[in-house]
Specification:
With 517 residues, the chain is α/β, with parallel strands linked by helices. It contains eleven helices and 19 strands. β6 and β7 form a beta hairpin.
């Protein structure tokens, strides 16, 4: 289907452009020139020595020793045992369970809430899963592949939104992530016209997936503070650096900051051998210029149209707007996309491949691109993808989808990598294996899965033990990694010994270990 879509589009574009005296720049890359994933030899590191045993524990939430902010309720709502707990303050929740054998377990939580809530479940202070609640009756979240140590385990709640209810927690013997999670991913990029360097990078990512994890770092805008601190403190750079077009939306209110502040830095990072990720904190194209939904009157739902805006000249789109056939929101969306496409084209002109991560964290609803729900979001994602890929012919992009919810997935033809952001407690170095396994199912294993933002570096020993080989991790910037904006490492979230362990680990790939693409 993907080939037919591109082939039909290419034919139509070729005929139209030929009539105007133009021709497309595109040509398919000779497959024999692409370095195949099979040419890389990475031995998978595995964990052994687990003694498995049968186990099952059924814990009623009301039986815990709870503090303030947790109250026991009884009603006829169908709760197990006729009782449950309401939680307004996560710090007051506490249960204990005696685990007989250190092994992998499956954990099921029965819960409910009046609207969308996210709350972390901890065992002995370490996050094991996020409880996602939606409005309605009792619902279950389960996580398999959770390694629990033998002995008394204390179950608490970590960071989250509170204001939800728990009925029971069930624990039973489980199994680690299957290696099947790392097989079956798409062999090629969604854009079959991707340039040679971009295809080579994608094949390398396929080669390491399930065997290694790339070190990544999000950075402040217009400077090298975080990466300088990492090199100064650890003697190595991360393999991946995340930049942002945050100042480059046409509506951004301070024009002196508008030229792409990270532009030269990203080009240099690529030339020095690093991989480039780009986000876009997109200031609303019209209305109040902000990316947070609560700070702007812009609503994506007002832009949705069945007009094929992705493949039209902007002048013709303006005519539709002037004629009342589309909204100002729709016209300005495309206009902004065209501006950012110009920046991305300059990257292509400089031989920079971009792991492109727009419209991030949409399902949370705090950004305007997610505040109108999943269907307008998917419409915008596909509009952007087709505008950049088909109309602007950007062949240097690897599309990283980061809406963070299966219902928001735009389809296999419209992205290359699935990403999620995980913010656990400080000094929690867990690797969230259940989340990785769950996310792989959202695309039926078609897409590699990455941790595009995180609070702490993951412990490489746990990556191996839990078989949780995220494609990369990227620690957030500022106080998550440096002291007061200086190029000095901070141990506020990841202690110095763990940083060194991560960057020196055979499991983790740093910039000096990347091949030349």
């Amino acid at each position: 289907m993907k080939f037919l879509r591109f082939a039909a589009l290419l034919t139509a574009l070729t005929l139209a452009l030929s009539a105007c005296g133009f021709s497309s720049k595109r040509a398919l890359i000779d497959p024999s020139k692409v370095t195949p994933a099979e040419s890389y030899d990475f031995e998978k590191l595995v964990f052994s020595g687990i003694e498995e045993s049968e186990f099952e524990a059924y814990l009623e939430a009301e039986d815990g020793t709870h503090g303030s902010g947790v109250s026991v309720k009884t009603d006829d709502s169908g709760s197990s045992g006729g009782a449950y707990v309401d939680i307004s303050d996560n710090s007051g929740f506490k249960l204990t369970v005696d685990i007989p054998t250190g092994q992998f377990y499956k954990i099921t939580v029965c819960h409910r809430a009046g609207d969308h809530k996210e709350n972390d479940l901890l065992f002995n202070g370490q996050k094991v899963m996020t409880i996602y609640s939606e409005s309605g009756g009792w619902q279950e979240n389960e996580a398999d592949g959770i390694f629990l140590e033998s002995g008394v385990n204390v179950i608490t709640l970590g960071s989250g939104w509170s204001w939800f209810s728990i009925d029971y927690i069930e624990i039973e013997d489980g199994s680690s992530i299957s290696n099947d999670v790392y097989s079956g991913m798409s062999e090629t990029l969604s854009n079959e016209y991707a340039n040679l360097k971009t295809q080579n990078i994608y094949q390398y990512l396929r080669a390491i997936y399930g065997k290694r994890t790339l070190a990544g770092q999000c950075t402040d805008y217009g400077n090298n503070t975080e990466t300088d601190a990492l090199y100064k403190g650890l003697g190595k750079y991360p393999a991946i650096r995340t930049f942002d077009f945050i100042f480059d939306s046409p509506s951004y209110p301070y024009p002196n900051d508008r030229p792409a502040k990270d532009y030269d830095l990203a080009i240099k990072w690529s030339k020095d051998g690093g991989l480039v990720v780009y986000d876009w904190h997109w200031h609303a194209p019209c209305g109040s210029p902000d990316f947070y939904a609560e700070n702007t009157t812009f609503r994506l739902s007002n832009a949705v149209t069945d007009k094929d805006l992705a493949h039209m000249d902007l002048e013709d789109i303006k005519k539709l707007y002037d004629g009342g056939e589309i909204s100002e929101e729709a016209y300005k969306l495309v206009s902004d996309i065209d501006v950012i496409s110009g920046y991305l084209q300059k990257f292509e002109d400089n031989n920079v491949t971009v792991l492109w991560r727009p419209l991030h964290e949409a399902s949370g609803g705090w950004f305007w691109w997610g505040a109108s729900g999943s269907e307008p979001y998917k419409w915008l994602w596909r509009l952007m993808y087709e505008r950049m890929t088909d109309y602007h012919e950007l062949d240097n992009l690897i599309w990283v989808w980061n809406a963070q919810d299966e219902e928001w997935y735009p389809g296999d033809d419209y992205c290359d990598i699935a990403a999620i952001d995980i913010y656990g407690e400080a000094h929690n170095y867990g690797v969230s294996p259940a989340t990785l396994a769950d996310m792989s199912e959202w695309s039926d294993g078609e897409k590699m899965v990455t941790m595009s933002e995180c609070a702490t570096m993951p412990d490489p020993d746990l990556i191996v033990r839990d078989n949780a080989y995220w494609l990369w991790f990227a620690v957030w910037n500022w106080d998550y990694i440096v002291k007061d904006g200086t190029p000095e490492l901070s141990d506020a979230y990841t202690d110095f010994d763990m940083m060194k362990k991560v960057y020196d680990s055979e499991v983790i790939i740093t910039r000096d270990e990347l091949p030349k693409f």
